[in-house]
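Researcher: Please predict.
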Amino acid sequence: MISLSTHSELPDSQRVVITGIGLTAPNGNSLTELRAALLNGKSGVQPYEIRYFGKTLAGICDFETTRHQSKKDARRGTRAGGIGVFCANEALQDSGIDWVNTAKENVGVYIGVTEHGNVETESEIYQIKDYDYDTSFWSHHHNPRTVANNPAGEIALNMGITGPHYTIGAACAAGNAGMIQGLQMLRLGECDLAFAGGVSESIHTFGIFAGFASQGALATHDDPTKASRPFDKNRNGIVVAEGGCVYTLERLTDARARGAKIYGEIVGYAINTDATDFVLPNPERQAQCMRKALRIAGIAAEQIDIVSSHATGTHNGDILECVAIRDVFGDSDKTYVNNAKSFIGHSMGAAGALELAGNLLAFDDRQVHATINVDDLDEECALKGLVQNQPREVDRVDYILNNSFGMLGINSAVIIKRF
């Protein structure tokens, strides 16, 4: 197997940086709004009702759907595609790239998804029931809506991008996987600019709620804002959320040449597989994934300032990730751990990219946002560096490690360095 170069061995033409961020989350539609919500303890979880399943809770986004596309295109497309279009255009604007003079054939779109097509298929079946299930009433838009490349394809169509586009199906590790794919394609010279990240429309399919409920893994609470409670002894499951986050990624040489602002540099990454269970995580493999990312970054575990945890609020999942984090970081008092799902729920395919974004401004403001709703810490989740309920000010933040794990044993970790 070819050994991967550590970050210190890379020339500037192989170093990849983040120059633009576009997002929508249940508690904010820009990086500034999301960051403020995370530092001020603002949850985006609210009551929700969906056909067949009934009343539940969800993280719901409220963004301007026609800011970057027409009403006709929004109706013809999908919720996931619309989220992607919004986020990609916001990232472009944030980056300051001269889009008019950008060669669109040299732009790639790499978007992570947990699943895609269930919403549209459920909706069509729901509608044709009024016609005695006569499939002649089935929408002619169904096939382009449900193909796996849809969210990335809608972005490419909207923005006139003629380079490569595809989605990366990586369960709830997909947001990280989209970023990793963008980085790799830039290094290979397959594109000169990458739109990379993840999106989710999961709250619009009743099947995902029913599926988690049948597993006994769907969160409930009298107060919706307290339902998502990773690491708390009384946590009782996942709050399903929608959302999206897309980054503009560029080679350092290109970003410097145009004087771009740089949010951070991707210096380490890894994806591996448990190969042990459909849903139960394997902490040994998770630890291996983090260590591989550290090895590629060429840094020691104690150099990581913030670990953005994946923890979803399930009993076993949270405990096993804590086992993995302890294995890698020990009882370091230099590494802080936080969790964004406690604010927004689990945004599935968007989770990795969106949760990372919520931490990036820590490079500047030196605030580690908290994990909220930890009223009674589970002693099995009592990590030394866990930031609970209130943000913590630190002297400096140089490295952030972002964990994202998913069903069928897929694990991912991305490390961002202060630039």
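Model: The chain has a mean pLDDT of 97.
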